[in-house]
Amino acid sequence: MTIKELHDLKGKVALITGGARDLGLDAATVLAEAGCYLIITSRKIENARDTAEKLNGLYSCDVMPVSLDVCDYNNVAEVFKIAREWKGHLDILVNNAGGNVGTGPAHLFERAPEDMVQMIMTNLVGALYCCREAGQIMANQGFGKIINIASIAGMVGRDRRMYQRNNMKGQPVDYSAAKAGVIGMTRDLAGLLSPLGVHVNAISPGGFGPRELPQGFYRDYSDRTPLGRMGTDKKDLKGAILFLASPASDYVTGHNLVVDGGFTIWK
Ligand SMILES: NC(=O)c1ccc[n+]([C@@H]2O[C@H](COP(=O)([O-])OP(=O)(O)OC[C@H]3O[C@@H](n4cnc5c(N)ncnc54)[C@H](O)[C@@H]3O)[C@@H](O)[C@H]2O)c1
Hints:
By secondary structure, this protein is of the alpha/beta class. Helices cover about 45% and strands about 15% of the residues. The chain has one domain: 3-Layer(aba) Sandwich (Rossmann fold). Helix 5 packs parallel to helix 7. The longest helix is centred in the middle third of the chain and has 29 residues. The N and C termini lie far apart (about 40 Å).
């Protein structure tokens, strides 16, 4: 196969949860450029519509905006039914919705139990619901690529002094628990679905910034990273998404692709 064929996604349908902004938008953008039809989900339909319009203007691809709360199973089931009916197939799912949700304290001893549950619901259970629905559609087709966005938080513990020094609340332990769950789920689901033609992989990004982060934190984090910087939006996640969505990764399943500038290799 040529390099072009290895990355050709012409006519494939990709659904990206939380695809209206940041890393989800980066995933949507690279998949649009590679030829996909897109389904962009956001909890607020107007955000999904804005992004759909922009991507359609830039790449002249069909983009369907949909409202989706991944924590609501009935909503998830309904959205995947619509997704399947749109073009008659669903080829790629990027399970991106999540993040460090909520405004409460991050420290375990002060953390409200309902905030912990919400974190796990959004980052793990929501992704599992989407895998359930997409997995069935893809297994019936005999083809599919599921990409779960995990995090290095699911792989290593954090040096919280870096956050304290920069007056930041840091990451709750339940975020790490959820993302470790996503990595485990990816592996086991790959075992279940790969014989049916469905590839299941994860991407574990390191910190992306600077966004709104304090300069001191950006410096500290960069200093702790072999490649000397945080991940850059609009660039650093795109290659991993394209690889795992395209024929270039046709012999890769159950993998956790770490995109962290080497953060997790330095002890
Ligand atoms: N930014 C980073 O440094 C980083 C690092 C590692 C992993 N990640 C992961 O990458 C993914 C995207 O992160 P981001 O930085 O772009 O975050 P973000 O907060 O900018 O975007 C997250 C998206 O998820 C959506 N979302 C949140 N709760 C939802 C729900 N219940 N239902 C549907 N959508 C919901 C948000 O609306 C948003 O569109 C997340 O899963 C995050 O955990 C991010």
